[in-house]
Specification:
Largest sheet: 5 strands, mixed
CATH class of the largest domain: Alpha Beta
């Protein structure tokens, strides 16, 4: 999932949570990728799809952009974690941080609500499982047995219950 796709995904996730959410323009977004509104709450969300921890720059962008979009709350959502500096700045700036574990919780929360069609639920399930650890939990397509695969696993995998074979690289 590329950065722009991740932004769209986060906006869709907030819509499932009952917000009106829209993605801002790609360039000159003033540090805000998604604006989510519900009741009197307006959240300026900076979305970071990173392979490393998000630094304090992400928090600075969200807080600065919050005023541009007339929001009363700033938030940074990432598929990774935050540096100690980012956490410290966020605590002093009233900026909420959602790391990979928090994101997995949000995804599971929308799954419990049963919202979305089956392909959306499957994407949510894969995202939650991939973000929560270095492994992926899948269900055998034949018998439904849960299997935990190491991230990046390739090759054939056999279900221990029904002996069905499938390729791990498709997950």
């Amino acid at each position: 999932m590329e950065g722009a796709e991740f932004e769209e995904y986060i906006a869709a996730l907030f819509r499932k949570l009952g917000y009106q959410a829209s993605v801002t323009q790609q360039s000159r977004d003033f540090g805000v990728d998604v604006v989510a509104k519900r009741g009197g709450e307006r959240i300026a969300i900076q979305v970071k799809r990173y392979s490393k921890a998000v630094s304090l720059g992400g928090v600075q962008q969200a807080v600065a952009g919050m005023h541009k979009y007339k929001c009363n709350k700033a938030m940074v959502v990432t598929n990774n974690y935050f540096t100690p500096g980012a956490e410290k700045l966020a605590s002093h700036s009233s900026c909420e941080l959602i790391d990979r574990d928090g994101l997995a919780k949000l995804i599971r929360q929308t799954q419990k609500a049963g919202s979305g069609n089956s392909s959306e639920r499957l994407q949510d399930q894969k995202s939650a499982q991939a973000t929560s650890s270095n492994s992926v939990v899948i269900a055998c397509e034949r018998c439904g047995q849960k299997l935990r695969l190491a991230a990046g696993r390739r090759g054939k995998v056999e279900c221990p219950s029904c002996k069905a074979l499938f390729f791990a690289s498709t997950y």
